[in-house]
Amino acid sequence: MSTPPSNAKPAAAAAPEAVKPSNFLRQIIESDLEKGTYATRRWAGSPGDAAHQAAGQPDPAKIRTRFPPEPNGYLHIGHAKSICLNFGLARDYGGVCHLRFDDTNPEKEDTEYVNSIIDSVKWLGYDWSQPGNDAPYQASDYFDFMYRAAEYLIEAGHAYVDEQTAEEMRVNRGDFSKPGVDSPFRARTPDENLARFREMRDGQHEDGSMVLRAKIDMASPNINMRDPAIYRIRRATHHNTGDKWCIYPMYTFAHPIEDALEQITHSICTLEFEDQRPFYDWLMERLCEGGLLSSPPPHQYEFARLNLTYVITSKRKLAALVYDHKVNGWDDPRMPTIVGLRRRGYTPESLQLFAERIGVTKSDSWIDYSTLEGCLREDLETKAYRGFAVLNPVKLVLTNWDEVMGAGHLEPCTQPSLPHPPEGVTAPTRHFTIGKEVWIEREDFEEVPPKGYKRLTPPKVNADGTTSAGAIVRLKGGYVIECTGCAKDAAGAITEVHAKVIPDTKSGTPGADSVKAKAAITWVGVADGVSAEVRMYDRLFSDAQPDAGGKDFLESLNPNSLKVITAIVEPSLANAAPDQKFQFERHGYFVADRVDHVTGTKPVFNLAVGLKDSWGK
Ligand code: ATP
Ligand code: MG
Prior knowledge:
The protein is an alpha/beta fold. Helices cover about 25% and strands about 20% of the residues. The protein has four domains: about 10-130 and about 255-305, Rossmann fold, CATH 3.40.50.620; about 145-250, Glutamyl-tRNA Synthetase, domain 3 (Alpha-Beta Complex); about 315-385 and about 530-610, CATH 2.40.240.10; about 390-520, CATH 2.40.240.10. The chain contains 14 helices and 31 strands. The chain has a seven-stranded mixed beta sheet. Strand 3, helix 3 (about 75-90) and strand 4 form a beta-alpha-beta unit. Helix 3 crosses helix 12 (about 350-360), helix 8 (about 250-260) crosses helix 9 and helix 12 packs across helix 13.
């Protein structure tokens, strides 16, 4: 990852007011706005049925989108794509995006996840609050309406209670080549069905003994339309509604209703729900014709989910990594969770940029991990303060220091925190000192240099008996020095590098250019350098598609995804606050982490991303 020392590249010129690239969703929304598809909608200030909304104002939101996570885990980079998409479209078209907890599944949900999801959406820079209402929506608040909708479907002859066993139902559903077979319970009258359904609600039947099914078409070529189950019996305590219910709506029934009660216009989901759209529309039509929901109902649109190489984006599999202790928690900096990415040094802006850059399409594809890293690099380039850090230190002794500079003398040096600050930004000057001893990177000295090597090399006796002087190099921000040799231990390992300081060559002084240096190297003074724990992260998996095709993703875990080293950093980095990002010059971008009091009191830095794309090299 190390590259020869160089100055940071100049900041990219500020982009002109970016024109958002269009995509199929933008086209649909623009066309709906033009046609006034949703212009007649009303909004009473809260979710509700047709009567509730009819009493409201014309909806001030031109469109309504939603981000509907199930609170059964931490959000990941795939969710970030969906968040940026839904909130971004609402923002760009004068609309509103709802954060809604899709909490209709009582068993798997937890308030720990609810809180973390709220934090992550806010951290990404989005806000769902509206005047007088800043609580996120929750699907479980709509259970009463869902129940009413189910009774309506029964009364209208569109639903029935089926008492076949799960196995019978599976067999009778048929498959792609075979139409389904009607259930013997399908011909029950609405009155019989209603009585049965109420018994289900009242707890008179066992879990799994019967379900409520929509009555559509057992011969439909779309298996999802072959009388899908819409309510099941499940005795489970729900984190919001407690033990009020022992029947719960199925996701496919609940989700369209949630959208409709919230007056969503564009319900955007991932491609795997495409086959559910006919049922979504069927249900909306039935409930609108029954007058329960206001027209026009929401529409569902599908886009390709994010697949990122070397990353898994399934909450269940991420949970397995956490519970099997393959990583140190949900916010381990190797995790693609939003909390993990944040501890890795990712910024909200870098994730927004990523979402914009990958765009939305209607066909599945894989995005290269380096695209994500590139977005972070681009964002930090102009923002992250620079600093010197020596990751693999060896001591450099300036043997003539006491003589030419004075015994024990420490000379103050300065460097800018940002070499090219963006307009209007003043970055502080960094202060540090140089003395007789400094730390340099081990790789900056070579006794037998490879061809083209420009850093420290000792004097050399040539074939003709003459001697060439040692290499002349600048300690960046300090003095020019001339290498004179090194010291070794009994085993021949280099313990010190030796050089002479050339007086009057300090950076920023008139003599700075009086001696030509082959290169400038980074360094940290022994007197004021601070030792730091640095966590060098690498990809978590060695397989680009760790879980594709049902592969066991645990088999491709990279055993070297974390290497902890002790580095020496310049004093300006010693008191970095957690979450502060830096460019360790020549090494990459790092983020300060919380001090780990188990391993000590040293400042801690996590590698965010290298300076150049070293992916797969
Ligand atoms: P998981 O399989 O990890 O549990 P999920 O889709 O079941 O993911 P939800 O909480 O139901 O998770 O998802 C909330 C929203 O985030 C959904 O609208 C879903 O479409 C979207 N989403 C989830 N994963 C991705 C992804 N990889 N790319 C884009 N959007 C995603
Ligand atoms: Mg889900």
